[in-house]
Specification:
The structure holds 2 protein chains of 2 kinds.
Chain A: E1 9-13, E2 18-23, E3 31-38, E4 45-50, E5 55-56, E6 61-64, E7 70-75, E8 84-92, E9 106-111
Parallel strand pairs in A: 1-9
Antiparallel strand pairs in A: 2-7, 3-4, 3-8, 5-6, 6-7, 8-9
Chain B: E1 4-7, E2 10-13, E3 18-25, E4 31-37, E5 44-50, E6 53-57, E7 64-70, E8 73-79, E9 87-94, E10 106-107, E11 111-115
Parallel strand pairs in B: 2-11
Antiparallel strand pairs in B: 1-3, 3-8, 4-5, 4-9, 5-6, 7-8, 9-10, 9-11
The chains are: A mainly beta, B mainly beta.
Chain lengths: ~110, ~120
């Protein structure tokens, strides 16, 4: 699986949009971009994933650049409960079962 | 309700004890995973079961022994552990479709294991 690069930490004010960047410059054509988050003392939580097109669900939006070398996770109205470590992961869609390789992620702190 | 339930949530054991961690998924998935998360380290994949068959053992010491009796249950049997095995042990499941692996994994909240 290709590696990703994320900033170690970010701050966001409550109610504002949180934009979390991820670089994956060596991504291949078969690899999806996944986002998970881990709130303290809990297991990782799946947020969203995509291949080429932008995606949106009830939790977040995923914007993937046209060359697919980077992406941004957007939490449109961050709340205090969104404070967590956010992981950007790329993985091959055809590698069989869904193994994930977690990096260090971005610690997002949402403040009042 | 996360769909993946792990018990116990916390476990303290001596190095000579034998204990088991349990994971149950209520999502109808056919693949299950054990991960280890040590302090200040990324999650490490330990084992993968796909349709009850072990498909990956990521160089895990034999003092960790997984068991998957059916596609809904996964156990991790522990014996003669070392202090460095203290960590959060996470279980996950996914629906894998025989070659296309773009289905997300869903995690439980883990068992916090402390070895005395």
């Amino acid at each position: 699986d290709a590696k990703t690069t994320q900033p170690p930490s970010m701050d966001c004010a409550e109610g504002r949009a949180a934009n979390l960047p991820c670089n994956h410059s060596t991504i291949s054509g078969n690899e999806y971009v996944y986002w998970y988050r881990q709130i303290h003392s809990q297991g990782p939580q799946y947020i969203i994933h995509g291949l080429k097109n932008n995606e949106t669900n009830e939790m977040a939006s995923l914007i993937i650049t046209e060359d697919r070398k980077s992406s941004t996770l957007i939490l449109p109205h961050a709340t205090l409960r969104d404070t967590a470590v956010y992981y950007c992961i790329v993985r091959d869609a055809f590698s069989g079962y869904s193994t994930l390789t977690f990096g260090k992620g971005t610690m997002l702190l949402v403040s009042p | 309700e996360t769909g993946v339930t792990q018990t116990p949530r916390h476990l303290v054991m001596g190095m000579t004890n034998k204990k088991s961690l349990k994971c149950e998924q209520h999502l109808g998935h056919n693949a299950m995973y054990w991960y280890k998360q040590s302090a200040k380290k990324p999650l490490e994949l330990m084992f993968v079961y796909n349709f009850k068959e072990q498909t990956e053992n990521n160089s895990v010491p034999s003092r960790f022994s997984p068991e998957c009796p059916n596609s809904s249950h996964l156990f991790l049997h522990l014996h003669t552990l070392q202090p460095e095995d203290s960590a959060l042990y996470l279980c996950a499941s996914s629906q894998d479709q025989g070659g296309t692996g773009n289905q997300p994994q869903h995690f439980g909240d883990g068992t916090r294991l402390s070895i005395l």
